[in-house]
Amino acid sequence: MDNPTEPGRPLLERPLVRGGIAATLLALMFGALLLAQAFQDDGDGAAVETSSSGALDDRAPIRGEPAPDFELRTIDGELLTLSDLRGSVVWVNFWATWCRPCRRELPDIQKLYEEKQASGLKVLEINYQESPGIATDYFDEVGLELPMLLDHEGSVYDQYRLQGLPDSFFVDRDGNIAQIQYGFLTEDRMREVLADLGLP
């Protein structure tokens, strides 16, 4: 029987050595894959971390009930949790650059955010499964400065039981869902909902 260590053979031809090298390479490849999933290029060469907790519970959104809680990263890589914003009126808007109705309503959302931010309005623009570079390039192109969160995995989209875009959820100062609006919103309807929440 041959000796497994095979002292007379070149080092790289020994089965145990070759097996060890293969295992090391596989481990390195797996580690690189995990890093690639956690960090995504933003289009300008800078790494933007996109991994986050996502959906924090599995409750469906129901008017008058606490808003399903989530934690997502901002475009700057900071973690933001919805429940931390209690005390403010929070407008949660789901969007993507390929969604034409989303693009139509975003300038009006920007306008109302600028008007009512000082009165306690928070806006969270949740981008659905696009790269940070694509999302920020669009905002820059049309001059939008709304707070943006990245739903890279789509877990919050699923948590809120969505099937299309755009969709808006208005959360009152106590953290409860006050209004649900599926589909495109006109500026008049936006103002009506905000007025009902004490932001005329």
What can you tell me about this protein's structure?
The radius of gyration is 24 Å and the shape is globular. Strands 3, 4, 5, 6, 7, 8, 9 and 10 form an 8-stranded mixed beta sheet that branches. A two-stranded antiparallel sheet has the order 1-2. With 200 residues, it is an alpha+beta fold. The N and C termini lie far apart (89 Å). 34% of the residues lie in helices and 23% in strands.
Question: What is the gist of this entry?
Answer:
The chain is of the alpha+beta class.
Task: Map the helices and strands.
Layout lengths: L14 H24 E3 L5 E3 L4 E2 L14 E5 L4 E3 L7 E7 L4 H17 L4 E8 L3 H11 L5 E4 L3 H5 L7 E5 L5 E6 L4 H10 L4
Parallel strand pairs: 6-7, 7-8
Antiparallel strand pairs: 1-2, 3-4, 4-5, 4-8, 6-9, 9-10
Mean of pLDDT = 84
Distance between the termini: 89 Å
Encode the helix/strand succession as letters: HEEEEEEHEHEHEEH
Number of helices: 5
The global form is globular
Largest sheet: 8 strands, mixed
Which labels suit this protein?
globular; disordered N terminus; eight-stranded mixed sheet; alpha+beta; two-stranded antiparallel ribbon; about 200 residues; about 35% helix
